[in-house]
Write a structure and sequence with these properties.
By secondary structure, the protein is of the alpha/beta class. The chain has helices at about 25-35, 50-60, 95-100, 125-145, 160-165, 200-205, 210-235; strands spanning about 20, 25, 40-45, 60-65, 70-75, 85, 110-115, 155-160, 180-190, 195-200. It contains seven helices and ten strands. GO terms for molecular function: nucleotidyltransferase activity.
């Protein structure tokens, strides 16, 4: 999901294009999804973020773009994993996601994993961990006869205490539990039932909504990128 305004970040560039450690957040999230077990990646943009839309269209990995309900195919350059771009109305997360799932232009079947574009610490292993946790919980509920053949949704949350300990802002909490903050990673199922999955992973806790969050993310990304470069050099 890459169609938000990102006004709290107070940046001249759109939120998905905001760079953490010299890399746009949308690129970091795409890299994580490409390294995960998800089969296809669909990026939802909106009129709120036209530069992000243009940026994605220029990427070699882009498969198609939906504008006013019409899909315009683009020439792919052998992407590591199929990536599609779809334009939403920009009316908010819930509304945009609903319209995307109902769209017939790009086939998307539930359950589907959704991830916000402001999670620069996200990694493929983190995504796979969420997917595996979802599968285990659905299987367990199925054995207990609790799903009626329908797949529930799952909201991944972190304790607000973790975000504060990491010096991250807490702007949103669950209505049912003010001690939990949504991470921006969810699994959308076919039923109205929603499971809550609690995580203590700092990679899921780091939503970049404000400049202070960006500074925290930059520190973690710098350490991770440096470790990756050292491992690559050792491999050579």
């Amino acid at each position: 999901m890459a169609g938000g305004r990102g006004t709290r970040l107070e940046s001249r560039v759109e939120k998905p294009l905001y760079e953490i450690g010299g890399v746009a957040m949308i690129d970091r999230v795409l890299t994580a999804l490409e390294a995960s077990a998800v089969g296809r990646i669909t990026v939802a943009v909106s009129p709120n973020a036209p530069d992000t839309r243009d940026y994605l269209v220029e990427l070699d990995c882009t498969r198609s773009l939906e504008v006013d309900g019409v899909v315009e195919p683009l020439e792919p350059v052998t992407p590591a994993k199929p990536v599609w771009v779809i334009e939403s109305a920009g009316d908010g997360y819930v509304s945009d996601l609903g319209s995307i799932l109902e769209s017939n232009s790009i086939p998307i079947s539930t359950p589907v994993l959704t991830a916000a574009a402001d999670l620069p610490l996200l990694e493929g292993a983190t995504v796979d961990g969420v997917l595996e946790r979802y599968r285990r919980r659905v299987r367990a509920r199925g054995r207990d006869g609790g799903t009626d053949g329908e797949a529930p949704s799952m909201t991944v949350c972190v304790p607000t205490a973790l975000k504060r300990r990491l010096e991250l802002s807490v702007d949103t909490t669950l209505e049912s539990d003010r001690h939990l903050a949504p991470t921006g990673v969810n699994v959308v199922g076919t039923s109205n039932e929603t499971m809550i999955a609690r995580s203590y992973d700092h990679r899921l806790a780091c939503n970049v909504n404000r400049r202070t969050d960006a500074r925290v993310a930059k520190t973690y990304c710098s350490d991770r990128d440096r470790d990756g470069e050292e491992k690559e050099e050792a491999f050579r």
